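SUBJECT: protein chain
CONTENTS: sequence, structure tokens:
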Amino acid sequence: MKLPLFFPDRPLSTTTQNHLPIAEIFEDLVLYKNGAVTLILESTSLNFGLLSENEQEAVIAGYAGLLNSLTFHIQIVVRSLQKDISNYLILLDDAEKSISNPKLTEIMRGYKKFMSDSIKKKNVLSKKFYIVLPFTQYELGVSKSFSLPGSKQTQPGVPYTKAYVVRKAKIALYPKREHIARQARRLGLNLRQLKTDELIDLVYNIYNPEPPIKERGIFN
């Protein structure tokens, strides 16, 4: 038995953005469709293993102090990315062309082969550390979610524009940002808030990851 074929009156079309929770990135903040807002701080790293025993104990005590000082929610995000050294290998190629000593040229080729083989056999990762400060829609005084497609009111009975939400979020988030940054400096870490263009790049790369270096054929 054959099933009848039905042809839609209009083509089926949609956009990936309709399925993302993010509504907009505006004034260095991430605005979500449910009215929530987040502020993202990028942190420097600390090589704990190279510290002396006393320094390690001081860092642990400082980290405990940071956690105990919190009266609000935070997220600590560690993002691991495969290291892309293709530009570095191009730089080595250019350096090799300027070498006139045959022995140095052979050493350079051996080094390039070593770097290429290391990437092929192992996952060389770089890590980035972020602290996310959330501002929920409930802090606006509403008990349900609503959308923010722009600066217009989107649901009856919810008289909040995008500008109002951003202003309230900044009032709530900026003191938290300063507190976290102050506590982090005691650990020898520096925090900085990601700007709008950096947030756009971060979100784009999260949802559009590049294929692994091995699959891109850079080291073939």
Observations:
- The longest strand covers residues 125-135.
- The helical segments are 53-69, 86-97, 102-121, 162-185, 196-207, 213-216.
